[in-house]
Amino acid sequence: MLPMNSQHQFVNQLKPGMTLDQVFLVRDKDLRTTKSGDLYVVCTLTDRTGSLSARMWQASESLFNAIKTEGFLHVKGRCEDYKGALQFIIDACRPVPADKVDLADYMPVTELDVEQMWAELLEILRAVKDKNLRLLIKKFVEDRAFVAAFKKSPAAMQMHHPFLGGLLEHTLNVARAAAALLPLYPKLNADLVLTSAFLHDIGKSAELTSGLSIRYTDRGQLVGHITIAAIWIAEKARLISEETGEDFPPETLDLVQHILLAHHGEHQWGSPKLPAVPEAFVVHYLDNLDAKIWMTTHAVENDADAESNFTPYMRQLETQIYKKSRELQ
Amino acid sequence: MLPMNSQHQFVNQLKPGMTLDQVFLVRDKDLRTTKSGDLYVVCTLTDRTGSLSARMWQASESLFNAIKTEGFLHVKGRCEDYKGALQFIIDACRPVPADKVDLADYMPVTELDVEQMWAELLEILRAVKDKNLRLLIKKFVEDRAFVAAFKKSPAAMQMHHPFLGGLLEHTLNVARAAAALLPLYPKLNADLVLTSAFLHDIGKSAELTSGLSIRYTDRGQLVGHITIAAIWIAEKARLISEETGEDFPPETLDLVQHILLAHHGEHQWGSPKLPAVPEAFVVHYLDNLDAKIWMTTHAVENDADAESNFTPYMRQLETQIYKKSRELQ
Amino acid sequence: MLPMNSQHQFVNQLKPGMTLDQVFLVRDKDLRTTKSGDLYVVCTLTDRTGSLSARMWQASESLFNAIKTEGFLHVKGRCEDYKGALQFIIDACRPVPADKVDLADYMPVTELDVEQMWAELLEILRAVKDKNLRLLIKKFVEDRAFVAAFKKSPAAMQMHHPFLGGLLEHTLNVARAAAALLPLYPKLNADLVLTSAFLHDIGKSAELTSGLSIRYTDRGQLVGHITIAAIWIAEKARLISEETGEDFPPETLDLVQHILLAHHGEHQWGSPKLPAVPEAFVVHYLDNLDAKIWMTTHAVENDADAESNFTPYMRQLETQIYKKSRELQ
Amino acid sequence: MLPMNSQHQFVNQLKPGMTLDQVFLVRDKDLRTTKSGDLYVVCTLTDRTGSLSARMWQASESLFNAIKTEGFLHVKGRCEDYKGALQFIIDACRPVPADKVDLADYMPVTELDVEQMWAELLEILRAVKDKNLRLLIKKFVEDRAFVAAFKKSPAAMQMHHPFLGGLLEHTLNVARAAAALLPLYPKLNADLVLTSAFLHDIGKSAELTSGLSIRYTDRGQLVGHITIAAIWIAEKARLISEETGEDFPPETLDLVQHILLAHHGEHQWGSPKLPAVPEAFVVHYLDNLDAKIWMTTHAVENDADAESNFTPYMRQLETQIYKKSRELQ
Amino acid sequence: MLPMNSQHQFVNQLKPGMTLDQVFLVRDKDLRTTKSGDLYVVCTLTDRTGSLSARMWQASESLFNAIKTEGFLHVKGRCEDYKGALQFIIDACRPVPADKVDLADYMPVTELDVEQMWAELLEILRAVKDKNLRLLIKKFVEDRAFVAAFKKSPAAMQMHHPFLGGLLEHTLNVARAAAALLPLYPKLNADLVLTSAFLHDIGKSAELTSGLSIRYTDRGQLVGHITIAAIWIAEKARLISEETGEDFPPETLDLVQHILLAHHGEHQWGSPKLPAVPEAFVVHYLDNLDAKIWMTTHAVENDADAESNFTPYMRQLETQIYKKSRELQ
Amino acid sequence: MLPMNSQHQFVNQLKPGMTLDQVFLVRDKDLRTTKSGDLYVVCTLTDRTGSLSARMWQASESLFNAIKTEGFLHVKGRCEDYKGALQFIIDACRPVPADKVDLADYMPVTELDVEQMWAELLEILRAVKDKNLRLLIKKFVEDRAFVAAFKKSPAAMQMHHPFLGGLLEHTLNVARAAAALLPLYPKLNADLVLTSAFLHDIGKSAELTSGLSIRYTDRGQLVGHITIAAIWIAEKARLISEETGEDFPPETLDLVQHILLAHHGEHQWGSPKLPAVPEAFVVHYLDNLDAKIWMTTHAVENDADAESNFTPYMRQLETQIYKKSRELQ
Questions:
Q1: Alpha carbon of D323: minimum distance to chain F alpha carbons (Å)
Q2: Given CB atoms, is C233 within the 8 Å cutoff of chain D?
Q3: Rounded to the nearest 10 degrees, how much is the dihedral formed by the CA atoms of A210, A212, A216, A218?
Q4: Min distance D35 CA to chain F CA atoms (Å)
Q5: Residue E158 touches chain C, beta carbons under 8 Å
Q6: Which of A30, A207, A209, A268 to substitute to test the interface with E, most E CBs within 10 Å?
Q7: Where are the beta strands (DSSP E) in F34-61?
Q8: Bridge partners of F76?
């Protein structure tokens, strides 16, 4: 019974009145009593595109216990508008083992090929000529635990690229943009820009968890990705120095750490230092630009209201986004 | 007498102890009396790289009258340090007619070929496909008075590219950078970005004078380049409409004006609107990036103090600039 | 059946426990199912003073279809408190054609006589002596489409005078205040102050819609009323110039546009220029003063809570407003 | 010898090359030695319009001793430009007793009739009807020491009306403006506005000295005019209460003190409270408007540079002021 | 029936699923109708640790009338999670007279002994040697009405020590900290620091009510505790002066008032003056430190979510608080 | 010849008219020509309290060469006022070898006993009980290079304790204050507070040079003391971990680094993290308090103007400091 629909309807495409017959990931559940004494279940159903409040009337305690938080649930029912938000009324449900679902539907994850992105990033970094910067990059690239975490990490909790692989996707974008602009600015130290483009957000792989839900780690919250990365770079420089028997040049270390510390551009965004070399401005602006392009195009593409020419107000941008710029004419 | 040195020593390269025998542009002059009753002249000598305070002892009133403000003067003498600033002691001098000097040595002017830059800019704009944006660009390109002013204009009074032709140089840089980045962001409206890259600062050709000294015009001071340009664009759209007999599409006009109005990125920098389409962020960040690269590399290249690894404090950047980033190792 | 009460009870005067028998404008509607499977309707009822959430139990699909969004509905039922907000329980209802209601009860509209206000504004402007400013005023006054839109426009979406005719009401207030103050400051250019008082907010007639609901237009959102008005003034000056065969004096144009651009007083409020003539400060402060008087007296008069001496916190003023200042002793 | 010129040339009108033969007030003096061992005097000469650095060569110790700081000195000599600033070379000088000069030339003082202004202010306040506010006004008006200080006090050290009598001049302006606007806003408590217009800056008579030089008093610096005035009002209310045998109504006291505390409008300008009644906004904006009109018209009228259409940059206004707004056409 | 549990379960310790049989203070109540026409009661139950939304199904009008707002109610029922917040379902209830309950359970009140704290504060102040400061302290200590209010007052509405006696508790903490630090900084005027530590927040006893609910008084809202206290100090100084027949030294008065006016440290926090003596910094930082320690430790101790290492986001501190700092290892 | 005065007159005590016969440290020197062709020397003389511009007339090139920059010079001559600044006229001079002077007179250096301060700091840290924090402290205390640098380092370039040993003096003050306050706040983690008090500014020993002049190092400028210290702590934790064979507890490391990163309290002061544990507030406020007490008492003690009750305006404190608070009565 409850045969699976061929296609999962994603949360961000649901509308009042639609009926569903498919699997969701359960976040929260609660058993409540109506005034007449009947039990009912309230729970939150999610997939990688969002979450949905649901209730199931005429529930029993055993049915409630069968539903597992952080487990998968096949549900049948329909969508309603409830006080301006969407609500799902479950008519029937049964648990589904994790190995029967396509996890990628439930975890927010990059739509691009991770290995291909990683290869392209390495290809771009191959242009770096400076011996010490090459050693530094190599130390990170050969650190398996780091690379594994880096490939899985989101770029942020919500702001931009908030999905598994998002950090790599964003980093590659910044590195590509840097590679595209560097020929136009021959006075810049291209090696420094490319290396910093790679390293600028690596601390996020320790700042954020990269499981079913994206959260700050304790260390991310207390120390932050900028300082975490500065420490990692110091540590790699120490290892290089131990291997080569020579000091890692302090100017090189200072500059890479400086660009990292300054890449948020202003104190108020958590940068303990302001950009003090032209290369730092390149990383700062290209980082910001990629984030802003993601935020605005994502907001436009995911806006449910077909009637309005604008998205809802976006607090971080202090404006609504106009949705028609792409399709002039 | 006073045979001309083969090569003009520029103000930004002078050091205490150097002797000079060459022509400067005179800005200010004053005749003063020493305690013992002798007359002496105090004046300011300039070339395109800066200005220099000078004095000539044992002067006479007729000599003083022979020196012309905004005129050229051949001087012979030597440089001294006076209270931390450079001072020039004139031993002998004579006026020189303007047609005997290379004006380019005395007016700050782009070092690049203006016509070549203009041609390259037009080449980049040729990529624009949208019919209305093409018409808009064409209207400006065919406006001879506008083009003449645009080619001569500085990009700013002091901040960046503050020299004749600086506006074109900066605009070309932004357009080049946009052209380089657009292939990486296929979701953007490339036509809109390129058109706006061209138009974003055109109002500066009416905001600033472009003669021997760069100053705000009254209209520049009272109305500002952003609003001036928005008005020009409205005017060109009206002319197109009159010619074609069709309304210039209001969405297109709104978007081009919006990106222009928002290109300073924040209210505090004089933008009456905040960026509300992804294309506006591209123009905002590439504009800013080109300005910051100019400011920092210019500060590094023109810093006289060979001993320090940092330039003096730059108020606009709230930091000193580190001078060694280009030459790692 | 459902005979109409002689008097409409406005939303801002409703209290829990009141029964109603009258017409509202319907904004949203939704058909939902109770746990027991019964259908019920949830909708929003409005008049010009506010909106009210309503539900009707034991509904049918045909009844639901009879209710029209943006249509008028005669309802009978009673008001309740639901979680601190007012809710209306509909016992019976039937649609009412628009021509049977007094539209002024449902659209927020000025309580003053529009033509009388317009006449008074023109009377005040008659004091302007400067030939060019008179021509400029005339151009706007003779532009029928402009005048029609100006008379209907609200002054803002919510902040102050957010109703049809509000722009005229506010503009007249500012002009009156200017006329009252000018004799006290004979050094000011009175013509410039009066002209700018008239023109300072005219762009709002294109920034906001003026129908049943007040919203930003796309152009209002992307370009904004300040720039719209600056462009209109440039356009009128061009037309004057074409008619007179003489240049409209650039100083006059610069000044009128400057005062307009600076009338929000600070960059953070969207002014691209800061006030740079004394006349600009007059317009800025009188504009602000009229808005603040409206906001505070409106908040006091519409505060439902008779027990408290203060209104709720007003975010834009960063304070609560004390309601007893008018009635000392 | 040294016969007095019929007319004092004021400091703000001096130009390089002018010769003078008149009296100044001496601020500082210093005796120095030239390299050749000769003594010379350096001193500062002032009148009510500004100050001027001066030197006298070939001085003697007895001559130096004859010059008195804060004394008057008749000088003969000429003005020079020295490093961009004006300098005066004294050829001859002699002390002048204070009773031989017109003190009004040396102390900045209002050009208006103090008693007439005071009478007009009282006339305006006669419109106040509220019994308690009348008692409060009366308490201040009958306090002779207060009235004497109030009439002499400047309104600020430098910002606006920085001269003896300036506080009264400014207060009268605000009261006049309030009286002019109140008929337009009948919902306001006019008594409260007029009383507060009178009292809003009274604390300045204790915050600033009103002698030859205007400085902060210690109490002005440590406690400030806003709190000083709040305390005075509390004290007057207590006295009224003692006389009448009835409590001064606390709501009235609260409101007058509130408007006073809030009249700077924002915390950053030293207001401990933000305006929370409409009447507070009236006092805040009219106070600000009068100050800004003074600052801008004063800057325009006192600008020495006839060539420029703009005054120098004014830090408090964050802009230069355009000087041609009064004389359009 | 409904025998009282021996121990009151406080609101901040309740969890879904718990059953209760105890007394609460009722804040709000409302009678509503279900769709099926049944009546039910919605009310808010509180004790000194927080508030709880409750409903009672199958209610009658007489039962509703028996429940008194601001009265005590013995309830029996159980806690549920409702949309993420706790809700209480009342099965049975009856009113309880105020004299049958321990009021301290229902009003937020210090857990410390008020008289003992007061005695310790006086003991600390005994160290003050300066005659005039001693007189000033004495005037306040002997003012019975003041002392009674001071002992009962909270220190704030919500931020820190928001309970009866909180002002004394906070003041004592600041005085203790000052007494502990003063030996380390012998250059400070210890008498001034201790006196100001005592007086810095006294105005709060008139700014806030100290009954069953803590609210701003009208005077607190309009005038604020800082100015209220400055006025009180002026008044006490006047009384001392009348008694002693000597002026209270103005420097002493200025300084005590200055430290009071400056103790919020920045204009944006409502201080009309910035700290201008070292003693003012001591009071400012120790005041702030005590408040921040209370806020953070209170947030940690009252956080219900045992799973998270962080409290929810605290808007005033712009961060979440880490809960594990006390228990390292 | 030139017998040494028994006592060095320090620069901050010099006044116009004083004659001197003593040794200074030379910073800059320059040889210039008078109008009459005579040579003269301009140089800067310094001691640990400040610097003084000097000139010597009738100089020769050999004399000029004998004076060494960064060398010591015995001078004889007198002080003059020159344009409001003090100037010294050298009548005679001769170089003095460094070993003939008391270096402490020329380098700004703590007046306290460094070893005694260090011992007291260690004594305070002995109270730390937590095993891991003890290990961490030990690692730093046993690092000889670190301790040597720490003892010599200033606490800042100018703001507070800007002299050799100033870092230790400031650190000890903060540790003492923490030790004094901790008994009052038993809920705090005292070990964490004391450890962080010790470590909070250690990075300054690498941020600033500690030779004859105090300057930022390149690393200090580019990376900053906060990040430098965070890296050092990570490095020490790694070494501990290697020695003990156990992981250094990550919570402990996170917390110590967090308090360090947050100790400037706000993003704008360069803290990449805001305080998120109560212990972080303690370090932040006590650090700030010690700095502010130094700045204000130092300004009062070093103010040359005996006539004024206030120091000059201090930009960092946005106010002048009142000088009479210590000596009430």
A1: 32
A2: no
A3: -90
A4: 7
A5: no
A6: A30
A7: 39-47, 50-56
A8: F21, F92
Residues of E in contact with D226 (CB under 8 A): 272
Q: How far apart are CA F89 and CA F42, in angstroms?
A: 10
Report pLDDT for E215.
86
DSSP bridge pairs for D47: D50
Are E270 and D270 an interchain contact pair (Cβ–Cβ within 8 Å)? Answer: no
| Chain B residue with the nearest C-alpha to that of A253 | B328
pTM of the predicted model as reported, rounded to 2 decimal places: 0.88
Cα separation, B130 vs F301, in Å, equals 72
Q: How far is E35 from chain C (nearest CA, A)?
A: 6
CB pairs under 8 A between C and D: 145
Query: Other C-beta atoms within 10 Å of B65: how many?
Result: 10
Q: Is residue E227 less than 8 Å (CB to CB) from chain D? A: yes
**Residues, chain D:** 329
Chain segment D65-117, per-residue pLDDT in tens: 889 888 899 999 999 887 667 899 999 999 999 888 887 788 888 999 999 99
Integer Cα distance of F255 and F276 in angstroms: 9
Q: Which residues contact F238 (CB under 8 A, 6 or more apart)?
A: A235, F248
Strand ranges in C97-156 using DSSP code E only, listed in sequence order: none
User: Where do we find the tokens 């709501």?
Assistant: D251
Interface size between B and C, measured as CB pairs under 8 A:
84
Q: Are A128 and A191 in contact (CB under 8 A)?
A: yes
pLDDT digits (tens, 9 = 90+) for D248-286: 999 999 999 999 999 999 999 999 999 999 999 999 999
Q: How far apart are CA F110 and CA F169, in angstroms?
A: 8
Cα distances (Å, whole numbers) of residue F104 to E43, F47, F48, F68 = 75, 9, 7, 19
**Residue D319: its chain C contacts at CB < 8 A?**
273-276
A residues 207-226 lying closer than 8 A (beta carbon) to E: 218, 221-222
Cβ-count burial E189-216 (b if 16+ within 10 Å, e if not): bbbbbbbbbbbbbbbbbbbbbbeeebeb
Q: Residue F308 phi/psi, 5° resolution?
A: -90, 145
Contacts of E35 in chain C (CB under 8 A): 34, 38, 40, 57-58
Rounded-to-integer distance, Cα D233 and Cα D235, Å: 5
- Which member of C16, C40, C81 has the closest CB to residue E35? C40
pLDDT digits (tens, 9 = 90+) for F127-174: 999 999 999 999 999 999 999 999 999 999 888 999 999 999 999 999
Long-range contacts of B36-40 (CB under 8 A, 24+ apart): B38/F35, B39/B64, B40/F35
What would you report as the CA-atom Rg of chain A, rounded to the nearest whole angstrom?
A: 24
Query: Strands, DSSP E only, in chain C?
Result: 19-33, 39-47, 50-56, 72-82, 85-96
Whether residues F130 and E180 touch (CB distance < 8 A) is answered with no
Q: Does A261 touch chain F (CB under 8 A)?
A: yes
Which positions ≥6 away from E232 have C-beta within 8 Å? E140, E146, E202, E203
CA distance E241 to B226: 64
> Smallest CA–CA separation between A260 and chain C, in Å?
30
**Sign of the four-CA dihedral A316, A320, A321, A323:** positive
A16·C35 Cβ contact <8 A: no
pLDDT at residue C329, rounded to an integer = 54
- Centre a 10 Å sphere on the Cβ of residue D1 and count the other Cβ atoms it contains: 6
Residue A309 in contact with partner chain C when CB distance is under 8 A: yes
CA distance D57 to chain B (A): 6
CB contact under 8 A, A269 and F271: no
Residue B184 to residue A120: CA distance in whole angstroms: 13
Beta strand C19-33 with F72-82 is unpaired
Which residues, in sequence order, are bridge partners of residue C86?
Answer: C81
